[in-house]
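During the reporting period the student researcher (J.K.) took over the structure-prediction task from the postdoctoral fellow and processed the backlog of single-chain submissions. One of the processed entries is reproduced below for the supervisory committee.
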Amino acid sequence: MATDTTLIEKREELKRRLAAGEYKTLVDVFLEWLDRLLRKITRRSRPLPMWFIIVLLCFAIIGVSNIVAGRNLINTIKLHGLVPVLAVNLLNILYIPSVIVLNQSIRGIFTLWRNSILDATDSIASLEGFENWLKLTCNRRLHLIVIIIGGILNGLSLTMINPLTGVYTSYGWIFSVVVTAFLESMIVSAFLYLLLMLMLLLARMHGYDLRLFAADPSSSELISRLSGKFGFFLYFVAVYAAVLTLISTWSGFMSSFGINLVLFLWVPIIAIFILNQTSLSSIIRRAKWKTLNEAQAKVEKLQAAKNFGNQETMDGIKRLMDYHDRVKATRDSVLDFRTYLSFINSLLLPLLAFILGNLDFVLKLLGINP
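J.K. obtained the following structure tokens:
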């Protein structure tokens, strides 16, 4: 009874803290600060629309990168052409909405747990596991350190392989490339941190105890909602990878890697799919075995009475065994044809983007003159 009371209190405490907005990511804090600043400037009382903030940030990043580049930007356009320069700017714009969409989706996980999952959580260990994940995801100091370190390391590496550096070696051009690469890398590092937190949650879900539909855990509403939520992340990463592949191909960025770029971008897609499916399967099997063990315990209790001449006892054992066999025969996962098809489609998106970006080369391989 004490354990049940502790479990209920732990649930309610987590729900209260989530509802109060105590858990905020670094991106949440930044967006709130920017919203307050813009409202103060425009003297607006209501919060600004998220799309407006995204557009503003995109223009800010493009403006900073192009202003820092200065007259070297014109020389770059003359040397490489307008399309690669526009593609690189489009690539820079892509980072901002990607981070914000991923962050808002993680906020959706907070809401899902608060409204549904916490009430169905059947162990203190599972609650503590989720709470630890919340603390790590919302560890703004760690997130900031990752962003700064990632910005420095990736910024330096991108400076070395930047496709638009051309033959320029002036200090002004080198400075502009370093600043732009550093800003881009900071945003990418923020994205990667949130993506790693998502994958960490999927990995930790293996040990979660959830109260599901006892007769068929795989058909529970909670499993369907979890599958849908993490399925969105799968498609989000796939679309992001496809757009990244297409723009990178147009800009010439990492063009020497060719199909290896697609294979590299497949890694997070495959990882999310495997972690999602194995975690859900683990939760389903754990719920199934809980039901099976309860049925077995009742059968053993009836058998212990050794009242086999009683028809009611034998009917009870038969009904329990039938129920046991039916539960045992239910699915251990949510894998079906539709799930596999969605996974294949997510893998095809970056590949199709690569083919579209290298259409001339593909047609030549097929013996077709474009």
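The committee noted the following: The chain has two domains: 1-211, 218-370.
J.K. will present the remaining backlog at the next meeting.
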